[in-house]
Amino acid sequence: MRMKKASLGFLSVVIFIIIWQVSAFRVSNRFLLPYPVDVLRALIDILLTASTYRIIAHSFYRLLTAIVLAALAGVSLGLLGGFNRHVDYFFRPLVSALRTVPVASIIVVILILYGSRTSLYIITFVMLFPILFEATKQGVLNINRSLIEALSMEAERKGYALLHLYLPLSMPFIKTGLLQSIGLGFKVLVMAEFIAQSPVSIGNALYVGRVNLEYADVFAWTAIIIVIVIAIEQLVNKLKTNG
After folding, report:
1. CB of 140 within 8 A of CB of 78?
2. Could you tell me the domains of the chain?
């Protein structure tokens, strides 16, 4: 079964490359649509360049920083939101707005307010906070009420109950929300880097390729992004299975 899935996946890639090759031949303009072999050469050149890995490392540093901050805020406030309905009512409009407003609008507004230097962290944080808040809150709300009542008898303080009862029992929901945030956060971050033209970033590498009409480089960096996202999703699925 696994061999069949791999074969079908390989076949789909081959068909895609054939369609790409035919389309590039019909367009017959490497500046508009480079041939697959041109993108492969560009990809090899990028991978053999030392600065490529510094660029990827900088983007991942921004991603991890934003995820940590979003996790701290989302989990803390999510616990309070599930524990106290007034906290939930207070944050509900904000969380709903952040989940419905288009990503591009959020990026542009935050760039105007905070500039390009710190906005990358803020943008990624803003996109991930609602996911982690809702995941944590749902984790609290899905705890068996009778179990809470039994355990709460031994907990005289609310702070103790939140840290030692609600947090451990909500951990499966928190873990799922956190794992889902990684792939989304990376895609949002790259988009923000592209719009902000942030130096030493994957998004900026895409921007430079577009401005210089080096579309083979743009395609090559896009391939790198796809591989990274697939690797993240595979890691997430593996962690979910093991968890």
Report:
1. yes
2. 36-242 (1.10.3720.10)
